[in-house]
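re: ur question from earlier - yeah i can do the single chain one, its not a big deal. heres the input i used so u can compare w yours
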Amino acid sequence: MAKRKFSEEQTEYMIKMRSEGMLIKDIASIMGCCPKTARRYLDPEVRERGDAYSKDYQEKNRARIAARQSKYAQENKERLNEYSREWAAENRDKRKVITDRWRHNNNDKIVAAGKRYNAENKEMISAKRAIYRKENKEMARISSAKWHEKNPGKKRAWSVRRRALEKEATIGSLDEINEIYRSAKEDEGIVCYLCGKVIEKGCGHVDHVFPLSKGGAHTASNLRATHANCNMKKHDTILEPILLNPGDRVIDREGDIGTVVNSDDPHNVQVHYDNGGSSINCIVPECESFEGLWPEGVSEK
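and the output i got, formated as tokens:
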């Protein structure tokens, strides 16, 4: 007889029959398993030894077991597929629970596999989408409108990417770029890099610090969140940042005084304020259009 796995209730039932004096071979016959399996469930020590042996054997023979299973699956493909279909039809609810649990525990694998498939089949996917849009114009229009409404950040990011391609600009990681556009539109507490003030949620723009029109790259390191008005004022101006070094004393437009901690990126300088605060602030030219940090004792022109 084949080996079987028993639930706790079934195991308790087997133990009860054994306590009443029934022979192990008779219990095995009733439960539909071999006597050896019945003994494992009736005697905890035997079961522990068996589990330890099984685990040790599998670790030492992992490659051989995998090869044997693969060979069996290939030789019995039709029979296994038929069994799988029958089981799925008879256990729809159970199958859904198992599938949902697996997807929840393996979301990263699913996303990675999807990206890999899309990259390897880009032309085929594009062709299928083109055929679908041609045959289902109204549905495609509705679906596109819903997606654009739900993903304003990505919509803007893709629009700018097309402009970057036209300018033959260097294009960086699309995931990082999309995240900047999404954050500017959807996150709260985002600070405008040009004026240093908080941007109202849903109203953020994204600016190329070094403009695309003047050779700037379309990369995450060249993108910053701004107010719409600040972005329009800057237009395609190339900002020359005030160069500061760690240890320099600065004062911001609110009158708070602090010390520069890190200035590796002159457009985003980390400052530790005397009042205990710490933040990353934009350093911009001393002009009337923009606000930022100024060396202590220097007033805005």
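The first strand starts at residue 205 and ends at 208. not sure if urs matches, ping me
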